[in-house]
Amino acid sequence: MSVHRHPIVDDSLGLAAQGYSWFPGRWRRSPDPDVLHTRLMGRHAVGLRGPDAVRFFYDEEHVRRHGALPEPVQGTLFGHGAIHTLDGIDHRNRKLLFMSVLTDPHRVGRLAERAGQAWDSAAAGWVTQPRVILFDETARVLTRAVCDWAGVPLADADLHRTAADLTALVDGFATAGPRHWRARRARGRLERWLARVIEHARTGEPDDSVLDLVARHTGTDGRLLTPERAAVELLNVLRPTVAVSWFVTFAGHALHRWPRLRDRLRDGDLGYAVAFAHELRRFYPFAPFVGGLAVRDLTFQGEHIPRNALVLLDIFGQNHDPRLWPDPYRFDPQRFLDHEPGRDDLIPQGGGDPRAGHRCPGEDVTVALLATLAIRLARLDYEVPDQDLSISLRRIPALPRSRVELNVAGMVA
Ligand code: HEM
Known about the structure:
Number of domains: 1
Number of strands: 10
Bound molecules: protoporphyrin IX containing FE
Structural class: alpha+beta
């Protein structure tokens, strides 16, 4: 009986302390390159990586989500009863709602356009300030854009607070400290506000806005979602859209470290901007892994996975696996130029078929927003004052410590 197959020592504290560095350390000690055994939260846990593992993990016969997400993650990042926790027909029904609005090219195009406008009007004010923080400014730009686009009324006076609350949900999900409690309070405020917005939308005429589609969505029982549950799902559109601020901040980091990347972006080369967006999503640390529970006793590549074991797909590890990405720690948008990423190779937002499984339905939105805002960032005339741009891999979610401060002089002609 091998120690690897029946791990005794719980590594939850190791994971909490090491963040993104936890999986690499485990892989180094694993005799198998794509499967490892450990214990987390008192459960046998199995780590997987590689395109075959992606297909295995996203098969509903293998891995279920119900009961897998720790309460602290539901109470901050996703919300209770969110799509992330559903399986089978209930999941499929809810997923159709997200896919219909998030993969419609017209809607995605309108959101990117609205984000571009919000950026341009905010950037005019950056010139008058001695310093701006790229992360905070982008969060406000995206909050303004996504609320307008979704039909959610948001007064200018509430913009700063709402953007701060939306980012707090993401910032606080993987820690037990003050950031976590800030995230819980932010979720309470946001859910109460959006439940009222949903109730109000139900009293008006249908208008095909995202708000309206969520408000009128019916479950497999043919009934409307409760206002509270509908608010959770509306937040599952607003919150991750604003979370694209993490990648825009990483774009600021990349353009500072490798300034020659700015030239092609500045030219407005959209193909290059999309490749740059993919490389940002591959290279920088954001979602560390996804997890579920083994539906029954399973075997993957000859390894036994007991029923109810926690199964983790190592996102960050796979996106830096030299077998898939030659020289994985080189930032190189060229990898994706004239070359669409393989469905189960590049998995910063999950893998498999998004219609059938839990893969993120927001990839088109993410790439469109990143391409739009990266071009604008490259066209901005700014200096990067002295600051701490280091990115700790122990902190989930990671971010340059200074959140990228800029001294903006104007737009590049
Ligand atoms: C699911 C990452 C942006 C909406 C996910 C998952 C990941 C992820 C890792 C889980 C996949 C799984 O459980 O297997 C990201 C990252 C983003 C992003 C890194 C960039 C900021 C977006 C956007 C939206 C969105 C822009 C919507 C506007 C969702 C939803 C789910 C999801 C609704 C749940 C899907 C399901 O359970 O079927 N995302 N996402 N995400 N994402 Fe995203």
